[in-house]
Design a protein that fits this description.
Number of strands of chain A: 32
Oligomer: homodimer
Largest interface: A-B, 48 and 47 residues
Mean pLDDT of chain A: 96
Structural class of chain A: alpha+beta
Distance between the termini of chain A: 26 Å
Largest sheet of chain A: 11 strands, mixed
CATH architecture of the largest domain in chain A: 3-Layer(aba) Sandwich
Strand content of chain A: 15-25%
Subunit structure (chains A, B): Homodimer.
CATH topology of the largest domain in chain A: Rossmann fold
Family (chains A, B): Belongs to the peptidase S15 family.
GO molecular function (chains A, B): aminopeptidase activity; dipeptidyl-peptidase activity; serine-type peptidase activity
Number of helices of chain A: 23
Helix content of chain A: 25-40%
Number of domains of chain A: 3
CATH class of the largest domain in chain A: Alpha Beta
Domain Xaa-Pro dipeptidyl-peptidase C-terminal (chains A, B): 544-807
Subcellular location (chains A, B): Cytoplasm
Chain lengths: 813, 813
């Protein structure tokens, strides 16, 4: 195991002592203890909340080894001093590390160094009393083998239980810059309100009411104002999975030629909706009491963690979902308006009612008006959307695996490009899947006709026929409004996320680079996952530091302590690096020419004018097999040049690299290409060739239910990316382009059969370490069985190698 | 979906009304309601505990459809009558079934029949008031789409919340013969005690103290005596996984010839341990208060379900585990003594202390002295072990996937036979893995030398060299004591469990068939899994009915209502059949001769004297591949006769079956066999040949966290066996035999090279429907890559077909 913590706040010794008192590890009694050994015994006494008498506590100490020959109780009861090695022998065992397996009792400091656990300052071989207190402070912030701080581990064993109902304890309780779990999760208050939105998307003559589920600490009843984590999740009231499945589009259809046009940016720019909005409902009565509660929300473990720590959590599914008004729109401005309506209510700027009858208004009287949004995928997307409005009260968004432009989710380069794993899905399918009003037959009966018409309009407007950018997509491009962002940003994305592709976070990062807000970025090696239960990085602590700063206003150095960019290493397990930026405009570029299926450095070889070609059409059996087994296609695509894909794609490999190459940014392929018909597309994959044990893109569950989010509260599984079996290659990144969209995604260019055209394609951004001894590969092909249409057309593509090149931004090391 | 419920207790109408009053669905107010419609509205009003005002409750009714055109609120507020179709339209929606997808509003009764949901009696098309009350009673016992009763579904939404703290509510509260969730799971009391066992397995001069974790309802503090579910789990204090992995035995070793012997049954009969036991510790003080609690036990969802329903739960890991005294023994009588010590304490017949210092005794003063054991695998094994002692207080055991004889777990027919999936595991490995005292370095330091000696003795005594039955294994054969069983039995096992093989449950079933206890058996199509979260069978309700009868003494017809044997159908999903018995001695037998790789009916063909042969030795590359990919070996073994396994095994297939054949019991293979060296073994698989979509042996998770075990309590995932892709064959059952153990498992016979010997091998028991159109197959081979040693020896086996036959017990239909 290798531990990496970014959120340990450096703390002055005096403040550390003060904080230890606040959390009851030091008090008047400890001030009287005359030796380091007595102090350490006292600290340990306090650290075993499940044991009630000295007898059983000493038994626990006797179950730890202090030296290779002496147990903890025997040692401390016979010595006044606390050698540093004894302290860390005991500490490592408390942190869950196993004697002999993880460390040797003869040399605990070697293990501390190897695992990357911090060792406190000490002038001699023994801790003084003053040093020991600081060492204990540091130990509480140190991660256990379970990937929790020691203090969080103690929390799960009930350490804070006596403080929960102690009126002398300040709430929130801050330790090392982070809010602690002193709130009683068995007493959480759950209530439902209906927020009145500023629109009427189902055109029933009344503003849409939107259901919101609120969970807040019981302490709010006594007047505590709390910050809010708000997750907008269209899935969270249920989904229409079967109806969505039925709507999936057939992708085994040919790519169609497009009529060239002169479409301009103005032609595809969405216009604001000017439909008049009905007046708000009159407010005749106001109450603090809801009429409706709920047994169980669809929860998110990161939110659960903060429920134990004094944050309220709000879930809302938005227009068109179960118990709300309106219709689904898959990301258009109406959905954004719906999303921020909840924030406006939480910030005191909008009305909510206790029921859909709207007879009584109910304010968010318990809110401190500081709101963060959280969530992954569509949930993170709506957080991003909300941020681009600059809505008041939204202090920060934590957007994980979020879409920044729906064109980049369902389209690319004038092509219909499916999110990985979901061929045939489109904006209309997602609208139908999330239209959970359908789950209540009585409600659906009243809206069915309107909904069917709206859904048909989405199907029409998304325009699968051309794949072009148009007003439909422009309305769903949040990047246009990035300049309005006022919330601080914590962005998280997987470099192997081929569902919401990395371009989404890259474009947003580039759009906000110069905005006057604080922004942080974490890139991991996973696919479309969340990372808040990983062992090797203190993500939950990072978020706690961040939110304690953003929402509770604690000056905890979050802005400066956290690196701008944290990126997980793709070659070493459990390794995360800090960087000042990602895809910086100043990155140098290295270019390669293409030469008879080889990649050669531009500096060392003359460009040659060869044309080389491949045909996209496969034998029917092979084609059918790939349509049912996309992994097999991908494996053949990148595999041996002379396998079943021979002559159906081109593979160019570089010389074996003599030094590591750290790609960072957006690779660009320049090509001169011809096709034998007036229709065509090209796809590209950049590949790391070389035998290696690579990280799996799905994390391994190390221990089920190992992480309690509080004390006897909800639980998460501990995870980690682990090296999988040796593989001969790995795709680094990819890209796609319709040959009729050489200019941009909306202007359709002519395409004459067998005429050569220049094409420049920007691939999805990446950050990837290519190891010395490996080869860089570029694979050029057409049909992408996982993402494009699959017409199996007789299309012969020719490429003039002399006019083609690959350009790679990288980080100089 | 197809619903099957075995635990709906038939209830007389008057009692149904009484029970509806007890759970607050009927009261004086409902007696005044003058029309069926008003009554149904009132019942619905009470069924939405999350909604507090008439406004929001009526809204819920308006979200359901009563007829194809009218919602529930519109209908009921405008009609006096309740048509049967309206009742079930509303009911189906409440049960989670979707309009149009699962049923049509025009004909709900068709769906009720198809899904197998019970329809209440009705004289006309409308329910009378009296009929309606009975219909509501039935509806509460009916399973929802989530595989919970409607009442359990209401429970998860908080229906019983007002009853939890209502002093007028009787606890336990019984409805339809089953205990209901009226206990507050946020107030459960958790405490640790140390039970003094009647032995000293670590020979430290003091009786072993055994840690037990207790969870009991807070109501016990006010004097309620409660029954106990006790799970003995050696895993539950942690395991030494890495140490266990290191101890795994090498299975790539040759099978060794054995010296013929004249061993008798007496020679291998274990002798009772006569070592004197130290005197009990003196009891000088007694308390009702524990010194130690715990934050979180390793829980078992079935137990969690009953914690909400007024049962206490106790977990204990036994001798040699963390915080307990003693050493691990893997199933010998000392472990049984350790297991029942906890029961003796719970029944008031043994001392426990509040700590290992043993200064204060603590009785189980809150126990009603009625105890059940629960658990799967090793846990169920210890339940079986405990039952065979006849210990007082143990009313019933629910043994899931339990071992009945450790020889049948690690050995078979004079061979070392691994549990499926764990080649190289043995009794010593399991002892090391579960010796969790090792997890506390301080405690381990004190016991290490003794433990290493004990472990070496296990390694020696288990005798991997011969694989013979001996005194070591005889001491671990619970079947010898089956006649002592006094507890009623609920046995559950997977017919595809190749970890704990079906022989274990079969031998126990046969041993108790004539004992004067109630016994029930459930056989499912899974492997080594538990079935308490399945949708198609009401397993949790079955257990509730069973335990409410066994531990609370409620006369609820559990003994007669539940079928003796329930077996899941292997050809139809979601189908379970009731049978009077399994493997009944009276089953008829059908026999097949072997003929040149074919199976022919004995009646229709003359026996022939052919000898046919195969060689067990594989090319090295093929051998190496199979050692790393056991699934590939298994697939080749049963696959095309002429594939890579050609001449390395024999495949005999029957004629295509013209009728279904329902195998039930233990197939027997009679063979005349020779081998070219003085050593040899044979393995057998009975195979179903024929293309079919078969059930997967691992269940599919239908919905995560869908099943709350109470109200805002712990959650389980909803599961089901689902048909997987079409496969050409499936193994039905298998068996193994050392050719030197032709007589029995301890007597070693001589084996001359190339001499023919008669051999009769009983395969693992099964229950399997072979469909008409399929072929029965018998595959004869030697090395079993998943279970036997894999020496890749040059062993040529010859079989005289004329003297060989297959005998199959079956159920006549």
């Amino acid at each position: 195991m290798r531990n990496q913590q970014f959120a340990i706040r450096p703390t002055a010794p005096a403040q550390a002592l003060d904080e230890l008192q606040r959390i009851h590890f030091l008090d008047e009694k400890s001030a009287d203890l005359s030796t380091p050994s007595l102090l350490l015994q006292d600290l340990y006494d306090r650290s075993w909340p499940e044991f009630k008498t000295p007898d059983v506590i000493h038994q626990q100490l006797a179950n730890l080894m202090a030296t290779p020959d002496t147990d903890g109780w025997a040692f401390l009861s016979h010595h006044d001093t606390v050698p540093v090695t004894v302290f860390y022998n005991l500490a490592l065992q408390r942190l869950g590390f196993a004697v002999d397996l993880d460390f040797k009792l003869a040399d605990p400091l070697a293990a501390m160094a190897k695992i990357q656990l911090p060792v406190a300052d000490h002038a001699g071989n023994d801790f003084t009393i003053a040093e020991l207190k600081q060492a204990w402070y540091h130990l509480l912030t140190t991660h256990s083998k379970n990937g929790q701080t020691f203090l969080d581990q103690l929390t799960t064993h009930g350490y804070f239980e006596p403080l929960v109902h102690d009126p002398n304890v300040d709430k929130p309780l801050i330790f090392n810059g982070k809010s602690q779990a002193v709130f009683d999760t068995t007493q959480l208050i759950r209530e439902v309100v209906y927020v009145e939105s500023a629109q009427d998307t189902d055109h029933d003559g009344q503003r849409d009411l939107l259901k919101a589920e609120i969970i807040r600490p019981a302490e709010t009843e006594a007047g505590l104002k709390v910050p809010v984590l708000y997750t907008a999740s269209p899935y969270n009231q249920g989904t229409n999975d079967e109806a969505g499945d039925h709507m999936m589009h057939n992708v085994n259809v040919p790519l169609q030629p497009k009529q060239p046009n002169d479409t301009t940016l103005a032609d595809v720019t969405a216009q604001p909706d000017t439909t008049p909005v009905p007046a708000p409902r009159p407010v005749t009565a106001t109450t603090k009491e809801a009429e409706q509660t709920f047994a169980r929300e669809q929860s998110y473990t990161l939110n659960d963690y903060f429920l134990a720590r004094g944050f309220a959590v709000v879930y809302a599914a938005g227009i068109g979902t179960l118990d709300s008004d309106g219709v689904r729109t898959t990301g258009d401005p109406e959905e954004t308006t719906s999303t921020i309506a909840i924030i406006e209510w939480l910030a005191g700027n909008r009305t909510a009612f206790t029921s859909r009858a709207a007879t009584q208004a109910i304010p968010a009287w318990w809110s401190n008006h500081a709101i963060a949004m959280t969530g992954r995928s569509y949930l993170g997307t709506l957080a991003t959307a909300a941020a681009t409005t600059g809505v008041a009260g939204l202090k920060t968004v934590i957007s994980e695996a979020a879409i920044s432009n729906w064109y980049d989710y369902y389209r690319d380069g004038g092509l219909v490009i499916a999110p990985g794993g979901f061929p045939g899905e489109d904006a209309d399918v997602l609208a139908e899947e999330t239209f959970s009003r359908q789950l209540q037959a009585g409600d659906y009966h009243r809206i069915q006709a309107k909904w069917q018409a709206d859904l048909a309009a989405i199907t029409h407007d998304q325009d699968r026929a051309t794949g072009n950018y148009n007003r439909f997509w422009d309305a769903r491009n949040y990047l246009k409004h990035a300049k309005n962002i006022k919330a601080d940003l914590l962005l998280v994305h997987g470099l192997n996320d081929w569902n919401v592709k990395p371009r989404n976070v890259n474009n947003l990062w580039n759009a906000v680079r110069d905005l006057p807000v604080t922004k942080k970025l974490i890139l991991h090696q996973g696919q479309h996952i969340y990372i808040n239960a990983f062992r090797s990085i203190d993500y939950t602590d990072i978020v706690n530091l961040w939110l304690t700063h953003e929402l509770l206003g604690v000056d905890n150095q979050a802005e400066t302590l956290l690196p701008n960019v944290i990126i997980q290493d793709n070659t070493q397990p459990e390794t995360w690096h800090a960087y000042p930026d990602w895809d910086a405009p100043t990155n140098p570029t290295r270019s390669f020419n293409l030469q008879h299926d080889e990649l050669v450095d531009q500096q060392t070889h003359d460009p040659l004018a060869y044309a080389t070609s491949f045909n996209d059409q496969l034998p029917v059996e092979q084609y059918n097999r790939y349509t049912h087994d996309i992994a097999a296609w991908q494996n053949d695509l990148l595999g041996d040049k002379h396998n079943a894909m021979f002559n159906h794609r081109l593979i160019f490999k570089s010389a074996v690299l003599t030094d590591d190459l750290l790609l960072d940014g957006k690779p660009v392929v320049d090509l001169r290409v011809a096709v034998n018909q007036p229709v065509g597309m090209l796809s590209f994959q950049l590949v790391d060739y070389g035998d290696a044990k690579r990280l799996g893109v799905s994390p391994t569950i190390l221990a089920r239910k190992a992480l309690d989010e509080g004390y006897r509260w909800r639980e998460d599984d501990l995870r980690e990316f682990q090296p999988a079996a040796t593989t001969p290659f790995k795709m680094i990144t990819k890209g796609h382009r319709n040959l009729q969209n050489r200019t941009n995604t909306y202007h359709v260019d002519e395409l004459k059969p067998n005429a050569f055209y220049d094409l420049s394609v920007t691939l999805q951004p990446t950050h990837y370490r290519l190891l010395a001894g490996h080869q860089l590969g570029l694979v050029i092909y057409a049909t992408d069985f996982g993402m494009t249409v699959r017409g199996n057309q007789d299309l012969q593509y020719s490429i003039q190698l002399g006019n083609s090149a690959l350009h790679l931004p990288y980080l100089a090391e």
